[in-house]
Write a structure and sequence with these properties.
It is built from three helices and three strands. The relative contact order is 0.15. The longest helix is centred in the middle third of the chain and has 21 residues, at 56-76. A hairpin with a 5-residue loop joins strand 2 and strand 3. The protein is 36% helix and 16% strand. The chain folds into two domains: 1-32, no CATH class; 33-106, no CATH class. It has helices at residues 18-28, 49-54, 56-76, and strands at 40-43, 89-94, 100-106. By secondary structure, it is an alpha+beta fold. Strands 1-3-2 form a three-stranded antiparallel β-sheet, covered by helices on one side. The protein is flat.
Length: 107
């Protein structure tokens, strides 16, 4: 038995939230199709991060558009998959150290 005081309940915290996170993931699996999933991350060079501060609406739209076009084009190619696919994209604007790091996670 170990006592942990002041739990933060953050699902990303290995001390506080990992069990709750695993339970949540297990419950979500019932909503997924029985197919292979791939996780792809698209990012931009750090030198362009300042543009995301100047005009975030434009930059994030471009990041979504280009990542979607790229994945569609590559998936159509028989060399890679030869199929028309569906995907979900999520924008993250920070990195693990909470610094500006715009990137898109795609499944």
């Amino acid at each position: 038995t170990e006592i942990h005081y002041n739990s933060c309940k953050n699902p990303n915290c290995p001390e506080c939230g990992s069990v709750d996170k695993e339970i949540w993931i297990h419950k979500q699996e019932r909503f997924t199709l029985n197919v292979n999933y791939f996780h792809v991350v698209f990012t931009i060079p750090s030198e362009l991060n300042v543009l995301c501060l100047i005009d975030p609406k434009f930059m994030y739209k471009v990041l979504f558009d280009i990542s979607a076009e790229t994945i569609k084009e590559l998936s159509k190619d028989k060399k890679y998959l030869g199929a028309k696919i569906g995907f979900t994209s999520v924008l993250h604007t920070w990195g693990q150290n909470l610094s500006l790091h715009p990137h898109i996670h795609m499944i």
